[in-house]
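Fold this sequence, please.
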Amino acid sequence: MTLATLCCSENGDQRKNIKEKSDINIAAVVGNQPVCESTDNGDLPSYVAVFIEKEVGNDLKSLKKLDKLIEQMTESKMQLEEQVLTVSSEIPKRIQSALKNAEESKQFLNHFLEQESHLFSSINSHLLTAQPWIEDLGAMINQIEEIERHLAYLKWISQIEELSDNIQQYLMTNNVPEAASTLVFMAELDIKLQESSCTHLLGFMRATVKFWHKILKDKLTSDFEEILAQLHWPFIAPPQSQTVGISRPASAPEIYSNLETLFCQLLKLQTSDELLTETKQLPEKYSLPASPTVILPIQIMLTPLQKRFRYHFRGNRQTNVISKPEWYLAQVLMWIGNHTQFLDEKIQPILDKVGSSVNARLEFSRGLMMLVLEKLAADIPCLLYDDSLFCHLVDEVLLFERELHSVHGYPSTFANCMHILSEETCFQRWLTVERKFALQKMDSMLSSEAAWISQYKDITDVDEMKVPDCAETFMTLLLVITDRYKNLPTASRKLQFLELQKDLVDDFRIRLTQVMKEETRASLGFRYCAILNAVNYISTVLADWADNVFFLQLQQAALEVFAENNTLSKLQLGQLASMESSVFDDMINLLERLKHDMLTRQVDHVFREVKDAAKLYKKERWLSLPSQSEQAVMSLSSSACPLLLTLRDRLLQLEQQLCFSLFKIFWQMLVEKLDIYIYQEVSKSRLYVGL
């Protein structure tokens, strides 16, 4: 029997006392270690045995600790009993307090319920008593509101009639400026009334505005046209031959004063004119940018030119020839040029004086441009499937656009001919025709006798790249295509043209590959070298274009399209976004691969020739040669001469036929192979033969 067992037996009375409280968890602190155990189900004896075993063990000298342990346990027991007694005495008080509070709350609640019931009865009684008053008062309020609406309606009518009477009085006294100002105020009231549901009032207001607008517009238009006639408007002749503006009559100051007065009065009618006039718009398929109507005085100035345009370029007139779009395009450009000086010097100061932001010359050009757009929209469907006529139309339109923007400063943000060409059916036809004629041009340039000859072969400074005529013509073709589509209004259309250019580059690469394969047996020949120069030139130019602002903008647009359609991996999108790659990378990689293959073939060819020429040198025994001390002058081995002559001839030949950058790559590749051959094969062979 162990000491722990004896201790457990001797302390049986203490174990019984502890077991009486086995329904709670005993927390004892022995030293610095907390001990928490459940004493249910007879676990206490085993716990005590373990505890004694741990504290005393088999060491009899440790028995002196028992008194101290008993004191600690007794003290812990007393503390636990005090806590239990404290809790047992506080809980009933708290319960009693909570019950008391609950009872008081119940009494308050009952009191409130009684008040609520009484108040509810009083309110219902009051509502029943007041119901007739409410109904009578509601009816009176409705009548008042109705009367107020009628009164407001009558006030509006009175105000409209008053304004109308004022305009009439001003016109009777020939005070047109005040009449125009009053009409402007009336038009602004009309705009404010648009949210009203009073349809009859709106109709009355609109009819009144329309009535006075027509009277004022007709009167001012008549006077304005009379002044313009005195100035010999429109100016059909070029500016150099115009009498007005160079030699002016004595009454010119008065004429220009009246011009300014009438112009300003017509400007006042702009609000009512926009309110009453529906702007003629082309169909939505042309996606024209939103723009305000041309200001009224400029509209009147454009009227005689519009009549002339429609007379000559519509119907069965001899000047209306569908195959001659240059006639009406040139006419419009001439009209713009003829009137620019007058508009800048006489009309623009008037607009600046009244604080208008309108540019007279651009406003005039915008009005004429609408005639061109209408004409194009009508003519294009008639010649859409005639390649020759359609291509001629596109060429003339592009020339017209170029002059319009560069010479006359017409903004690309305004409606222009490129919007008409961007219409889906027309645009797809344009792409088809562009591809067709480009392929025909490629056939022609490759079949030309001078296809592989450089145009600048006799000019050393210019012929650094040794570019054959076909390659230069092809890149010029791509450049022309870029100039043709760079002013398209949307990035999506430009990207479609970019894809066309990439297809043409790939097609040209395939054609060069086919011609190269025919020349494989003569890889050092003139044509083979010309093809290699062409490939190198196209790759170099495309790499330069990749840094061009226009193509960088297209790259950004392509990035947005690819990101939207999820057509590229995140890595590819990241490369595009960081400008690590370009829109031409695929084409450049294919061309570089072709260039490397062709150079490798040339290097292999020359290397084989050099190896053949080195056979005698390779067989010569070094040990049979005289020593260096025996030779008065060092000389070249005669057997090495064929090798070096072959190398010299081929390097000279290729230096003359390849551009500098290609020749540099070529000789570096060749030298690398020769190094390995001479030091690994020739040297070993000569040593072996010598031995």
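Residues 65-172 form the longest helix (108 residues). The radius of gyration is 52 Å.
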